[in-house]
Amino acid sequence: MNYVIIGNGPAGVIAAETLRKCDPHGGITLIGDEPEPPYSRMAIPYLLIGDIQEAGTYLRKGANHFKNLKIELLVARAEKVDSKNKKVFLNNGKTVSYGKLLIASGSRPISPPINGINLPGIYPCWTLEDSRHIMKLAKKGARVLQMGAGFIGCIILEALASRGVELTVVEMGNRMVPRMMTEAAGGLIKKWCEKKGVKVFTSTKVESIEKSTDRINPLKVNLSNGKSMVVGLVISATGVRPNIEFLKDSGVVTETGIKVDETMQTSVPGVYAAGDVAQAKEFYTGAQLVNAIQPNAADQARIAALNMAGKDAASQGAMAINVLNTLGLISSSFGQWMGVAGGEHAELLDAENYRYLHLEFKDDILVGATSLGLTQHVGVIRGLIQGKIRLEQWKDRLLKDPTRIMDAYLARTQGTNFKLAA
Fold first, then answer.
1. What is the pLDDT of residues 265-289, one digit of tens each?
2. Strand, helix or coil at 200?
3. Torsion of CA 47, 51, 52, 54, to 10 degrees
4. How far apart are CA 27 and CA 19, in angstroms?
5. 330 pairs with which residues across the strands?
6. CB atoms within 10 A of CB 63
7. Distance CA 406, CA 414 (A)
8. SS3 call for 157
9. 339: alpha, beta or left, given left = phi > 0 and alpha = psi -120 to 50?
10. DSSP-assigned letter for residue 27
């Protein structure tokens, strides 16, 4: 069998290695469109901080890793898929034939429709090439404005702050990380960042960017709150979208991403998808969603590869799990953290000490959670949600005191006979 994988990020690499284990003699071609060895975008902040060099971002450290596995690496961009004749057309004019195809082409940053967004000195933080530009400009004391305070934005924020820049963050939502944290948690993260010296504007948009007369800080950023800021670097972290345009007329059904079944197969037999492009079943609701986080990408890649190689594997559904370190403050959210219709919730807020725990229930099952500054609960929260474990009388106890989540987990999963507090 000849396997072709479009995309050489974590999903593509894991799939290639899984295929090799299952099929020692099959042909495997891994296509990536950047002139770098396969690397992890999630490692770029550590490169910006200075904890690692570029080679530290590489997904596999051995120089001959892929060669030894007889995995062919191609540097090219897929421009078209002909699923009827099983061919991938590349931007270098060549075509690659496949027996089975995995699409793991990832996502790319959204460029917001802002006047001046293409001026020099404005970059996303997505590729190694972006990081090289950023490191030249984000020197100690440099004025930097970051658009966006979502999950990716907060990771970048951490790296920029560590470089000693004078940092301002502008977020359209009414709080930081608005799409993964409750209002209380997002508000606490903002307060924490401001305490650490980062200026944060929420409910604020960048209206336009223009050239300034300042030689060191050549960009003037105009905000919707009436303020203007003169800076030397603008980072755009306003979201991403899946790379799926090349599938037009391929027969592969797409919506917000590529629709897949529980085996990660698309609407075209023999064509699979995984990672940031896969529109897969969500764990709790069953709705098909793009859930672009690395643990899901790894799981989907493994499942897709096993099925491509003739094995049987199925996804139980993707669950949103986000763990974030923002200037030393650990926060996390799980599953239906925003709640479900007819559900109940419990909340602990200790703003002075940056501690927060919010649990969401449907009947006596934990379906979602948000925590901040309480890392000891992360494992048990995930276990309870993924196991859909009935809490029975522990649900009412948790509504009164959510910090007893560990007791509830042990009692309901290991039969530990904790005495229930009155």
1. 999 999 999 999 999 998 888 889 9
2. strand
3. 20
4. 9
5. 325
6. 11
7. 11
8. helix
9. left
10. E
